[in-house]
Amino acid sequence: METRLIGKSFLDGKPLEIFISEGKIKSVLPSASSPKNFWIGPGFTDIQVNGYGGLDYNSIQSDFLALGQISKKLLQCGVTSHFPTIITNSPEKISALIQQVVQLRKMDSLAHSCISGVHIEGPFISPEDGPRGAHFREFVQAPNWNLFQKWIEQSEGLIRMITLSPEREGSASFIEKCVESGILVSIGHTNATHSQILEAVKAGARLSTHLGNGMHSIIARHPNYLWSQLGAENLSATIIADGFHLPAEVIQVFKKVKAEKLMIVSDSVALAGMPPGDYNAAVGGKVTLTAEGKLHLFGNPNTLAGSAMNILQGISFLLKNELTNLSETWQMASIRPQRLFDTSFEPFQIGQNADLILAEQAPDQTLKILKVLKNGVEIPLD
Ligand SMILES: [Zn+2]
Q1: Please, are residues 152 and 183 in contact by the beta-carbon 8 Å criterion?
Q2: Residue 130 gets which letter from DSSP?
Q3: What's the whole-number mean pLDDT along residues 361-379?
Q4: CA distance 381 to 370
C-alpha cells in the first residue's frame, strides 16, 4: 500500500509531495501547491525520557509490557524515536532497569522501533546539592568503567549515551573509553572546574545535558561551569523548553551562543501527560501538577519536581514566545539530536524509514500534529 503526504517542507517551506511504500520513503517531489499551513518534517527524537503518561522507566514494573504505552503515547505527540533515561540508582537497580527496557523491546515491536537508545544519566555525577538535582545522593559515585561496561553488555548495545560530571579523577580516561565504545558523553549535573570541563571535551565529551539546570542556584560570576560549557566550541547542548526550567531570556542567550548546536529534550517524568492534580511521585514524594503543566513539590510552587511536558509542548513554548522559528524549532527536536548519533543524517532521503509528521501551525503559533507515520504506518491520534 502506498501513502502520500503533501505539505510544506519544515526546512524551507517549499511544497513537497512524499510517497511512502513498504515503510520507506519512495520518492520526494516538488508539489505545485500545498494546503496553506500544513508542514512536513521528520518525527521528533527525544533523547531524555524518564517516563510518560503515568509510566516510569525508573521503576521496576509488575508488568514491564505496560511500558510499551510510553512509545504509543509519545508517537501521538510526534515523537517517533526516544531514549528511555535511567537516572542515578544502586548498581543492581540500574542493571535491572536496563534489562527491563531490553526485554520490553524484545516483546513489543512498536517499542522496539521507537526506542533507539538508552540514556544513562548518573550515577557518575556531582554529589553536591544543586548540581546533583533530584538524583539520590547515596548512589552517586566516581566514574567506574568496569561497572559501566557491565551495563553496556546488559543493554545489548542499546546504551548510546551517558550524562556524567567530569569533576573526579579518572573522568577523562572514562570518557575516552566511552567514545571508543561509540557512546556519546554529555556533561551534566556537574560541579567541574573550567580545566576539568576542557579536559572532558578534549577526551571526547560532545554535549551538555539540560544546560542551565542541575546547577547551584547561586554560582561565582567567573569562572564557573556554565561559562565553561557555553564557551566550549565542540559542545552541543540540550535544554528543557517547558517554560518553567529556563526563563525565555536564558534560552535566547543559549540560542545565540550554541546556534545550530542547541537542541531540546523533554526530560519528562512519569507524570507528564497526566491530568492536573496532586500525586505521590517516586522521586520528590507528594507533588502537584498544575493545569499549565508545571510539576512542583506539594505546597511549594517554587521547587520543581521534574518536567511534565512532552517535546511537542516544548516546541510550542518556543514558537509561542517567538524564541525560535518553525524550521529551527523542528530541527532542534529532530535532525539535531539525530545527528549526534548519525552525523550524515539528512531528512527526506529515498529509502529512509518513513518516520514523518504532518503538522499545522495554529494562529497562536503552536504546532498541532495532524498525522504521524512510524515506518510508514499511520498512528491513530485519538
Ligand atoms: Zn538531569
Answers
A1: yes
A2: T
A3: 96
A4: 8
- Annotated binding site for Zn(2+): which residue ranges? 121, 189, 210
The percentage of residues in the chain with a pLDDT greater than 70, rounded to a whole number, is 99
Mean local confidence (pLDDT), 313-337: 97
How far, in Å, is the centroid of ligand 1 from the Cα of 188? Answer: 7
Distance CA 22, CA 124 (A): 43
Active site residue 278: no
Q: How many A from CA of 135 to the centre of ligand 1? A: 8
* Given the residues 56, 108, 242, 267, the one annotated as active site: 267
Sorting pLDDT into bands at 50, 70 and 90, what band is 108?
very high
Known binding residues are 121, 134, 189, 210, 213-214, 221, 245, 304-306
Q: Looking at beta carbons, which pairs linking 108-113 to residues 24 or more positions away fall under 8 Å?
A: 108/65, 108/68, 108/71, 110/68, 110/71, 110/72, 110/75, 110/374, 111/67, 111/68, 111/70, 111/71, 113/374, 113/375
C-alpha cell at 167: 569533576
Question: Does 3.20.20.140 match the CATH number of domain 43-347?
Answer: yes
C-beta neighbour count of 248 within 10 angstroms: 13
| Dihedral sign, Cα of residue 361, residue 367, residue 371, residue 372 | positive
Residue 176 Cα, ligand 1 centroid: separation in angstroms? 22
The pLDDT > 90 percentage for the chain reads 93
Indicate whether 35 pLDDT > 90: no
**Known binding-site positions for substrate:** 134, 213-214, 221, 245, 304-306
Average pLDDT value for residue range 216-231:
97
What are the pLDDT digits (tens) for 259-281? 999 999 999 999 999 999 999 98
CA of 34 to the centre of ligand 1 (A): 41
